[in-house]
Task: structure prediction
Amino acid sequence: MSEKQKKDLLFFFVIVATVNLAIGFSDGLFSNYFKEVYSTNGFQRGLIEFPRELPGVIVFFLISAISFFGDITIAMIAQAAAALGLVVLGFFTPSFGVMLGFLFLYSMGLHLYMPLNDSIGMSLAEPDQLGKRMGQVAGIRFAFLTVAGLAVFFLFRFGVFSFQSKTKWTFVVAAVLYIVALLLFIKLKRDMGQVRSKREKPKFIFRKEYKFYYMLAVVFGVQKQVMIVFGPWVLIETLGQRVDTIVLLGIIASTLGMFLMPQLGKWIDRFGVKKLLYVDALSFIFVYLCYGMLAQSFNTGALAKVGFPVLLTGALFVVDRLSSQMGIIRTVYLKSIALSSSEVTPTLSLAMTMDHIVSILVGVTGGVAWITFGSQYIFYTVAALSLINLAVAILVKEPRKIQARLQ
Result:
């Protein structure tokens, strides 16, 4: 790797840090925002996921339509959209319907950036150190989520920030950070030049060679939605925990992830993707079986809603956050089996569209199931679906063997 490439990679790490500071001041707080500002219940919380996750459904088509701009320019557009959405939510308390509109705009920026983060990161990494570099990106992500989480925790705990105030300062700070990320991307584009910052316009790609990756993406759409919505909702709705508790648990998860994710990247390079797919599958099965048993115990009164059971639920929340971040295993798997490097970004985008279609369905049906049957059945169902991850881990060949067969 040349000195110029190292400089570009390090600068990208700075951008990753800035974006995740912004995420730490915004994205993980929305459940409490909906509850405290708009008094939403479990059913409404599920419905909110439609405008929140719809951008993930259309992101493939949007990236395809504007791909002539290049990855970095699109990433700049994403930061601008996220910032604008948060500026409105931060300075105003709009009606519920208007709020959903600007939530959609913010979410569009966030989802537009997601596949580009992986694509840009892998384009800057050495081919034989993909796992290491993606692990470093994830480690930086967790490190700065931890920094943001600590700041948010103390600012809410001591009343500097509050969702009851006229200005939601946490969203304002996040908007400023997204603007800083936008400016950093402008510099990165200037430094990298047009050749490396642009790519060919992707075509719609749906290949049988990627079938296992598609399956993992769809199942992850279910797992992710439960992690984002219904896992925290056990703490918020069932156990009555407020924003400072959720943020504190997020800090713990981010601190652990800061050390775990770089190591996970090294394990991918050392042990291979197939073995790590087993770890990914088993972690999800364990987490959601435990969530189901705890939710059932709370709903039936078998467990008290104070003391050790609350601590146990918080610990499970942390493990769930860590499990959900093992997506770098799936990303490296895709990169390893891709027939062409030009197919990575459109395939990541298509997978995001697939997983978000599922996410919307899970958000709505999960909200209905929560109030109709009981929250435990959401978690038991997801644990059963996670067996698909295990089946894929069994069926896939090591990427090296796949590449040899395709060449």
